[in-house]
Amino acid sequence: MIARSKITSAIGTCLTAHGAAALVSQPLGARARRMADRGFVPGVPHAVLVPLLEIATGPLLGRAGVVGPAAAAAATALGAVRVGTDLEDSAVGGGTAAAAGLTIAGLAAVVRSTRGRPRAGLLGAIGAVVVFELVRRHRVLRAH
What we know:
The chain is mainly α. It has helices at residues 6-25, 28-37, 43-57, 67-89, 94-113, 120-143. Helix content is 78%, strand content 0%. The longest helix has 24 residues, at 120-143. The chain is globular, with a radius of gyration of 15 Å.
């Protein structure tokens, strides 16, 4: 079994807390409008599912089996999409730094949880998800 690092556990806890805070601190309509304004259309599914994914992924980071790599991949993709979005919008700040840290921690968890097994496919899938989201977002923003 792969040992969970203290950093991965802390990142998972922070990710879970961030998702929970996002759900309770801002009304769904306002979150959905903000997501749609940033190019994530439709806004409501993104406003609901991203925080739920954060809540579900946090405690599973660093686990063994199939669950750990899947959670690490989700965390990596969430962080990378946020970094890419902030860079494209020229809105780099503390949240961008946190997302970059999440991306690095997610990649480290992917590598750690797939030790001894092929990981090229998983890393390729993460890259494909990130590129898909950023390209789709760019096209939505250009269309408006």
